[in-house]
Amino acid sequence: MALPQSLRQSVTPPELELIASQELIDVVPLISMERTAFISGAYGPLRPPNKARIPLWMAVNLKLKKKCHIVAPDWFNVDYLQTRLARETSEPVFSDLPFRFAEISKVLLDVASDDLENPDKLRSLLKDLREARQAKCREGLQHIDHSELSLPNLCSMEINEIRPFFIESMSVLTRLVRNPIADR
């Protein structure tokens, strides 16, 4: 959702990608490396052709240096996303997706599209899924009242997008409930 500058008080999408870079992901290393300690933890050893589980930031770094192939997460395939899109368009509730699916999928498509099966179809499905979920968010925001908004299974990017609208709306609704005549 495009927001006016005055409402952009939330975390930016690149900052959310940075946060998501702590998620662990499988890689097939092309180099050997002993177990190495970082601030966020110790990872490795890397031994080709065995898979290793490392943070996304490390996988991106190795991929950019052509020292590994990134293995897509189980949820990042055409069949899974088509199923989720079908649920999204046919059911009133949000389908359950990984909390940081938008950020992780963007990073993987940007950096490791050559390691993914059918990246163009994945991009298309993610776009359709995003649009379907945004339509549900808009629908949910139309039914907002002064006490709550229930939109379960939102991902971090979606929460970040609606946060400014929600905060401002709840503020206005609270003022109206407290003093309905003075605000008219």
TrEMBL record:
Keyword Nucleus recorded: yes
SUPFAM superfamilies: GINS helical bundle-like, PriA/YqbF domain
Residue intervals passing through the bilayer: none
A GO cellular component entry from the record: GINS complex
Subcellular location: Nucleus
Domain of life: Eukaryota
GO BP term, pick one: chromosome segregation
UniProt keyword terms in alphabetical order: Chromosome partition, DNA replication, Nucleus
UniProt cross-references to InterPro entries, sorted A to Z: GINS_A, GINS_bundle-like_dom_sf, GINS_Psf2, PSF2_N
Domain GINS subunit: 75-173
Domain DNA replication complex GINS protein PSF2 N-terminal intervals: 12-71
Signal peptide: none
Statement: the UniProt record of this protein carries the keyword Acetylation: no
Chief localisation class: nucleus
Record-stated family: Belongs to the GINS2/PSF2 family.
Oligomeric form and interacting partners: Component of the GINS complex.
Protein's name in the database: DNA replication complex GINS protein PSF2
Organism of origin: Laccaria amethystina LaAM-08-1
